[in-house]
Amino acid sequence: MSVQAFFASCPRGLESLLAEELGRLGAKKPEPVPGGVAFEGDMRACYRANLESRLATRVLIRLGRAPYRDEQDVYEAAFALKWPEWFGETQSIRVDVNAIRSPLKSLEFATLRIKDAVCDRFRADRGRRPDVDTRSPEIRIQAFLDQDDRHSLPGHVRRDPQPPRLPQGWGRGSIEGKPRRRHRGLTGWRPGEPLLDPMCGSGRSSSRRR
């Protein structure tokens, strides 16, 4: 298998612990950065991190990296990627953008431009564009925009190779399910020991009148 670039996200403050964990799981060159760890490996390393990491919230595949100065640069960088090689036009997509000190005025507009670029690339190559589904997309695309210097700003476009975060807990009635953050309380935990996570969001108390 070929070596690829990946990014494992995690809560702030856990980056160094996650880097150590990924190294034990076989990741190459784990590098802590704000909000996660960049690492290299083949797809087996990606799948193992997905299955066995206790600290990572998501593991993303880095598809491209390019300098940008404005929203048009973001669009062109996204359009240049060969999206039809990674998924099909019949699959639904969602685009999310995160940034640190990005000079762009609106991340919402940057999100729209990346979505347009993906759809335009599919139209050009396949004659049909994928649908957008913000609630239950089949393909999640995440861009990260940061500030390198005043003239060149590297942007990362990543694809999520996994389903929504697991495990998930669900509230009662019409309460929408909220993901249970598996990294909370798991550092140092061993199977067989009691575990209480009061912040998991997996349930709520309710009272009924009789």
Notes on the protein architecture:
The chain is α+β, with helices and mostly antiparallel strands and 210 residues long. It has two domains: 4-168, VC0802-like, CATH 3.30.2130.30; 169-210, no CATH class. 23% of the residues lie in helices and 27% in strands. The chain has helices at 15-24, 43-52, 71-79, 107-126; strands at residues 4-9, 28-33, 36-41, 58-68, 93-100, 139-146, 153-160, 168-169, 178-179. The strands form two sheets. It has a seven-stranded mixed β-sheet with strand order 2-3-1-4-7-6-5. Strands 8-9 form a two-stranded antiparallel ribbon. A hairpin with a 2-residue loop joins strand 2 (28-33) and strand 3 (36-41). The longest helix is centred in the middle third of the chain and has 20 residues, at 107-126. The relative contact order is 0.15. Mean pLDDT is 78; it is low at 149-158, 163-181 and 204-210.
Topology:
Blueprint: E1 4-9, H1 15-24, E2 28-33, E3 36-41, H2 43-52, E4 58-68, H3 71-79, E5 93-100, H4 107-126, E6 139-146, E7 153-160, E8 168-169, E9 178-179
Parallel strand pairs: 5-6
Antiparallel strand pairs: 1-3, 1-4, 2-3, 4-7, 6-7, 8-9
Helix pairs in contact: 3-4
Main features:
210 residues, alpha+beta, VC0802-like, seven-stranded mixed β-sheet, two-stranded antiparallel sheet, 4 helices, disordered C terminus
